[in-house]
């Protein structure tokens, strides 16, 4: 089969010619000259036979032979054939009148027979016209179907019961790389598409079983090997076409190339798995809040709150917010869903399941969850951080509260900071308000050693206007103010 001539679902054109009625009697492959010769020969033969019979007084039987040329004329020429059939009928009537002028009964019967001939011709011409129109419409539909099949964006083929390819469309050529000329009329294409015998036997066995039970199968995904060696995933939908006359029937197979979709789905699953793993292992609490209730919670939030996942799902948002903070947080939640600009990151006070409170840092944003507005919230327990901040604040207040004078110097020995005890000491001693009086005169000789880390502490005695004092210079940590060292 070198050319596609039968679209899926319709019998081949030669089957139309072999159909019932006129198509079966008169095949459509006669030339015009053959038609003319057949009609003229039959008309001449029946006319000569009529002349012979009438000349011998025979008026019955032979006239029925007129139906043959009349039907041929009406079928092939339709309206023109009706006129020609009428002329042939008139020739019969003329022969009867010529041979039996004195027999009005015979002439009357011949006249009635003439009208029967014309009536038969009219009916045949009418039905022949209907048949021709039906054939043209069928061919038009067939052409549309063939064009649709050949230009469809999906792999489409028509097979016989032995798996031989009858139709192989353009998409099949594009997807597989094999041309229609290479595969039509053959069934070894399956060995090329499924080169691994074990996999091929598995697929064909599955198809045979499904088709044997249902005469069709849907969304059967298989991996084919293309001509260029690429591997593609095809989703097959196949159905048996009944009534085409082939032993075992024919099957139309539609294949959708889902290679890219499969890759995308695989990548999406991997991405979902990665982010699910990230969410599940996060130390922070992660939740989705919709309609002011929790719809999703990761293990981190459950651990912080102190309950179980089942307990926190559908728990009202307000149940974990400290009463003092509830109004403010709920208002922010509602404004965020309404599209208003509100702080996305803030600190608040929350409640655990047992009622104890703890400071938390919130990072919230609006999302769409199951087709409806919601918020994605990341919650961090900052209890430890708050404790450290309080400790740092306490330590930071130590110089201010220390009764001993404390000074901070830069690398050049200039005073950067003095605590209140320095001012009080100077005022109490009556000395000038100059904190450098607390520094030894040879500061420049040992200050480099302090800055280089050569000593942990250095003690010096300095003398002010009213007395002397002992000075201890501890080495500052590197994280302190750059280039400075405290002097006590």
Sum this structure up briefly:
The protein is of the alpha+beta class. 48% of the residues lie in helices and 21% in strands.
Number of strands: 15
Which segments are poorly predicted (pLDDT under 50) over 5 or more consecutive residues?
1-25, 475-488
Q: Could you estimate the helical fraction of the residues in percent?
A: 40-55%
Radius of gyration: 53 Å
Distance between the amino and carboxyl termini: 106 Å
Report the structural category.
Answer: alpha+beta
Q: What percentage of amino acids are in beta strands?
A: 15-25%
Shape: rod-shaped
The pLDDT mean sits at 82
Spatial order of the strands forming the largest sheet: 2-1-5-4-3
Q: How many separate helices?
A: 18
Major beta-sheet overview: 5 strands, antiparallel
Kindly give the count of domains: 4
What does this structure look like?
It is built from 18 helices and 15 strands. With 488 residues, the protein is an alpha+beta fold. It has 4 domains: 13-149, no CATH class; 152-262, PAS domain (Beta-Lactamase, 2-Layer Sandwich), CATH 3.30.450; 281-387, PAS domain (Beta-Lactamase), CATH 3.30.450; 402-487, 2-Layer Sandwich (Beta-Lactamase), CATH 3.30.450. Strands 2-1-5-4-3 form a 5-stranded antiparallel β-sheet. It has a 5-stranded antiparallel β-sheet with strand order 7-6-10-9-8, with helices on both faces. A hairpin with an 8-residue loop joins strand 4 (231-241) and strand 5. Helix 3 (32-55) packs parallel to helix 5 (79-99) and helix 4 (67-77) runs parallel beside helix 6 (104-151). It starts with 12 loop residues before the first helix and ends with a strand. Residues 1-25 and 475-488 have low confidence and may be disordered.
